[in-house]
């Protein structure tokens, strides 16, 4: 199953240009922002830190996209909606789960 990519300009629009007021999480490899799709659905936008863009980081990102394409929450929702691999940006967009981390579904954490 293929997931379409999206432009950085669209992601900036959905997150208020990665506004601090939309930041909902931080991690060693990047930050997570809350965003809103035009039809009203809320999304989580995971943006890889620029410092993580080594060859290994780029390979890890590609592998994460591949793994997430096949993941589903229950049997209903595909967790990865889209991604951005533009210039130096590596971004994953997934379903927003209030008070939950995607790691719970990805790694059982």
Describe this structure in words.
This protein is an alpha+beta fold. The chain has one domain: Phosphorylase Kinase, domain 1 (2-Layer Sandwich). Helix content is 27%, strand content 33%. The chain has a five-stranded antiparallel beta sheet with strand order 1-2-3-7-6, with helices on both faces. Strands 4-5 form a two-stranded antiparallel sheet. A hairpin with a 5-residue loop joins strand 2 and strand 3. One of its GO terms (molecular function) is ATP binding. Keywords: ATP-binding, Nucleotide-binding. InterPro entries: Kinase-like_dom_sf, Prot_kinase_dom, Protein_kinase_ATP_BS, Ser-Thr/Tyr_kinase_cat_dom.
User: What is the percent of helical residues?
Assistant: 25-40%
CATH class: Alpha Beta
Average of the residue pLDDT scores: 76
Sheet having the most strands:
5 strands, antiparallel
**Percentage beta strand:** 25-35%
Q: What is the CATH topology?
A: Phosphorylase Kinase, domain 1
Give me the secondary-structure category.
Answer: alpha+beta
Sheet with most strands: strand arrangement: 1-2-3-7-6
Q: Report the radius of gyration as a whole number of Å.
A: 13 Å
Q: Measure the end-to-end span.
A: 25 Å
**Which word captures the global form?**
globular
Q: How many individual domains?
A: 1
Low-confidence stretches: 102-109
Per DSSP E runs of 2 or more residues, the count of β-strands stands at 7
The CATH superfamily appears as Phosphorylase Kinase, domain 1
How do the helices and strands follow one another from N- to C-terminus?
Answer: HEEEHEEEEH
Which second-level CATH architecture applies? 2-Layer Sandwich
Number of helices: 3
Protein name: Protein kinase domain-containing protein
GO molecular function, one term: protein kinase activity
Pfam family, one: PK_Tyr_Ser-Thr
Domain Protein kinase: 18-109
């Amino acid at each position: 199953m293929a997931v379409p990519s999206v432009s950085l300009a669209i992601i900036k629009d959905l997150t208020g240009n990665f506004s601090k007021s939309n930041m909902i999480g931080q991690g060693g490899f990047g930050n997570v922002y809350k965003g809103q799709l035009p039809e009203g659905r809320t999304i989580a936008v995971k943006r890889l830190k620029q410092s993580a863009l080594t060859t290994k980081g780029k390979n890890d990102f590609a592998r994460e996209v591949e793994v997430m394409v096949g993941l589903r929450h229950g049997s209903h929702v595909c967790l990865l909606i889209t991604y951005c691999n533009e210039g130096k940006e590596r971004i994953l967009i997934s379903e927003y789960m209030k008070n939950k981390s995607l790691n719970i579904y990805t790694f059982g954490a």
